[in-house]
Hints:
Helix content of chain A: 25-40%
Distance between the termini of chain A: 57 Å
Largest interface: A-B, 77 and 77 residues
Mean pLDDT of chain A: 93
Radius of gyration of chain A: 20 Å
Order of helices and strands of chain A: EEHHEHEEEHHHEEEHE
Number of helices of chain A: 7
Oligomer: homodimer
Amino acid sequence: xxxxxxxxxxxxxxxxxxxxxxxxxxxxxxxxxxxxxxxxxxxxxxxxxxxxxxxxxxxxxxxxxxxxxxxxxxxxxxxxxxxxxxxxxxxxxxxxxxxxxxxxxxxxxxxxxxxxxxxxxxxxxxxxxxxxxxxxxxxxxxxxxxxxxxxxxxxxxxxxxxxxxxxxxxxxxxxxxxxxxxxxxxxxxxxxxxxxxxxxxxxxx
Amino acid sequence: xxxxxxxxxxxxxxxxxxxxxxxxxxxxxxxxxxxxxxxxxxxxxxxxxxxxxxxxxxxxxxxxxxxxxxxxxxxxxxxxxxxxxxxxxxxxxxxxxxxxxxxxxxxxxxxxxxxxxxxxxxxxxxxxxxxxxxxxxxxxxxxxxxxxxxxxxxxxxxxxxxxxxxxxxxxxxxxxxxxxxxxxxxxxxxxxxxxxxxxxxxxxx
Lengths: 205, 205
């Protein structure tokens, strides 16, 4: 199962939404530039986005969902126009290693997830993903080699339809001035801004 | 107030964490490449990150907070190594047009926010930010010109200390298989994954 023949036939590892391809090594560099380090989850995440892009109809205006805040948002941001700041990417804290692309008007799309059953035969990936050994004992080179060999064999694609509530644009609405901090905030949040309602991330300002 | 002398003295609009500078026009292009379009909020957001970077001590390992999911996360992602997927950027839904950089170990840092009092004298910015006229009537060129002239004059910087709870690394912890969907999820989420607990974003899978 781990022979060279199992390596992606061409030198291309993935492509982005424009069709620009990346070799495995070029994608590692791209990840490092954006994410800070060549995280294994992001290498797999790139393949997941690639599969999702392949499964979407051409010329479909899509939005994206990351079902976890770990790595997957960055795979989507590197390879599609959907970002955390333009509202085309939604990052959910479901903890599943899965992402979805869907028609932003109709809600139908594809979901790609890491299949635990398929991972079991890939010793290094299984050990890393399920944290079966301490991080210090992890052989990162072997892990990346196995991710490259496994490619899409550890993944599964299915069709989905997104909940209509998620397709409504989250508008700021009317802005008001918070009577406590004096800053502007969305009036729909209440009589004062959420920070002044107790959600401030700061102990001193 | 709106004379050429108020334009940033050199041609540089901002710099990123590495010290690479962008002219106003180069930053518009960079924004468009990442964010999809030259959003005014992201042009201001870039200046906010620039101010925050200037106010941070050199060689400080920092994390970032965006107090809104609109535009600001992308300003941080373009200009710093903090991203939505590497956990160095936290996107909070407070609705305030503000961001912060802070020492990831000590919690002290700087916060930059749009000051509504300062914005009042900039007609186009005020009108856009507070939605005083319909989007179709907005003069986008005049708005960008004014943002460029205003520069940091509409912003305010203060020091902050981040809540210790925010400085704890959000680890996935032990992974389990969800008895309902069969996918892996963080055991700390409960007896089944959050999607199977009713938080699924899909109507059909």
